[in-house]
Specification:
36% helix, alpha/beta, 7-stranded mixed sheet, 4-stranded mixed sheet, binds pyridoxal-5'-phosphate, 18% strand
Length: 434
């Protein structure tokens, strides 16, 4: 083993050489050095504001739903490591990938039957788009190659996903002239519990109808728009999309990468509306936050359509496709989730967040406070001062990563009531000082 680096040396090398998400080079902010993590706690290499450990309010970007260093997931990874950590997926197959695919088909809405295992969420969206475009090309309709989405979305950082992210004020505005030009509907009216607005529903129908000849698919995040603004909308709009897509001959893609595996209170957010898409992406919590893996599922109609075409294959095959380690952990993570009363845990966290974040409504500079499932959001009326907000949360012993005008949390489902309360205090402190 090489000599461990001191936290100071590590930070210096990090600053000089390592890109961080959405970061400049060299880095401007000092990242905290994490030494290990267990349960819902991140252990720091050196104390921050007197805390050696921070309660994780982020689940490492929605993924670590069971917390860190979980004995069941560790065992799955170790067991698989002793058999093989990877083998190519072209011409070969293996139990972890097959079990995972079968399990995903079993737990997702009924007509989704076929699974493409991708290595990240963004790639799974690329594959979903490729499936849809190829479906229409195979059907002799190559002009159907554009996508429609609503504003305020986020679908990843590679090229096609960027083209359907919110085109204004988001992270990808820089590329608006270079990206494929998609069709954008207005943002869905806010509010999970609000009645669907007939005028907005008509707007969706009209836009889909008007562009039907050039649309391959409609792609949206169901019920919760995540990194595009942490907004919730009525599940009723998903039914509107389903009906309009059927009426005008357009495929429907749900990006459940953030919402999947229970985060919104249903196993998949499509379940709030009882609507099934033609293509669905899952990722983030798929492996319980252990390893990078995502999946694109499609119906037999889509798969058969592609297979009837002049090029009857889906030409996509990442080197690490179906990675056995990730697939084993994903199977264990799904079993762990479904083997407990996860709905109860998410409800418990929802109640804790609603209670703990209520105080934020009274704070100056707060525009809105909203909670759905294990997601709590405080929206400010100004751009958050990220350094000040993060520091305020750390002072409370909590890790948060605010962005734009949002201070939010989506804690691991195993977060105890006291820790949920502590996270809420940190969100309020960050909202106050950010
Ligand atoms: C995070 C996210 C993605 C991208 O996933 P990566 O694994 O980061 O590539 C796509 N869509 C949604 C809804 C996401 O939240």
């Amino acid at each position: 083993m090489p000599e461990p680096l001191s936290p100071a040396a590590l930070r210096e090398l990090d600053r000089a050489h390592v890109w961080h998400p959405y970061g400049p080079m060299p880095g401007r902010q000092e990242p905290l050095v994490v030494e290990s993590a267990s349960g819902v706690r991140l252990r720091l290499a050196e104390p921050a504001h007197g805390h050696e450990e921070l309660v994780d309010g982020m689940s490492s970007w929605w993924s670590a739903v069971h917390g860190y260093n979980h004995p069941v997931l560790n065992e799955a990874a170790r067991g698989q490591l002793d058999r093989m950590s990877h083998v190519m997926f072209g011409g070969l197959t293996h139990e972890p990938a097959v079990r995972l695919a079968a399990r995903l088909v079993e737990i997702t809405p009924e007509p989704l039957r076929h699974v493409f295992l991708a290595d990240s969420g963004s790639v799974s969206v690329e594959v979903a788009v490729k499936m849809c475009l190829q479906y229409w090309r195979s059907a002799g309709r190559p002009a159907k190659k554009r996508l429609l989405t609503w504003r305020g979305g986020y679908h990843g950082d590679t090229w096609q996903p960027m083209s359907v992210c919110d085109p204004e004020g988001g992270m990808h505005e820089l590329w608006s002239g270079a990206l494929p030009r998609q069709v954008f509907a207005d943002e869905p009216p806010a509010g999970y519990g609000s009645e669907p607005d007939p005028a907005y529903a008509a707007h969706l129908r009209e836009l889909i109808g008007r562009h039907a000849d050039e649309l391959a698919a409609v792609i949206v995040e169901p019920v919760v728009q995540g990194a595009g603004g942490m907004r919730f909308h009525s599940p009723g709009y998903l039914r509107v999309l389903r009906e309009a897509c059927d009426a005008y001959g357009v495929l429907l893609v749900f990006d459940e990468i953030a919402t999947g595996f229970g985060r919104t209170g249903k196993l998949f957010a499509a379940g709030h509306a009882g609507v099934c898409p033609d293509v669905m992406c899952v990722g983030k919590a798929l492996t319980g936050g252990y390893l990078t893996m995502a999946a694109t599922l499609c119906t037999s109609e889509v798969a058969d359509g592609i297979s009837r075409g002049e090029v009857p294959v889906l030409a996509h095959g990442p080197t690490f496709m179906g990675n056995p380690l990730a697939a084993s952990v994903a199977c264990a993570s799904i079993d762990l989730l479904l083997g407990q009363d996860w709905q109860q845990e998410v409800k418990r966290i929802e109640a804790g967040l609603a209670e703990g974040l209520a105080a934020a409504r009274e704070l100056p500079g707060v525009r809105d406070v909203r909670v759905l499932g294990a997601i709590g959001v405080v929206q400010l009326d100004h751009e958050v001062d990220m350094a000040a907000a993060t520091s305020a949360a750390v002072r409370e012993g909590v890790w948060l990563r605010p962005f734009r005008d949002l201070v939010y949390t989506m804690p691991p489902y195993v977060t105890g009531d006291d820790d949920v309360a502590r996270i809420c205090r940190a969100v309020c402190a960050a909202a106050r000082e950010g």
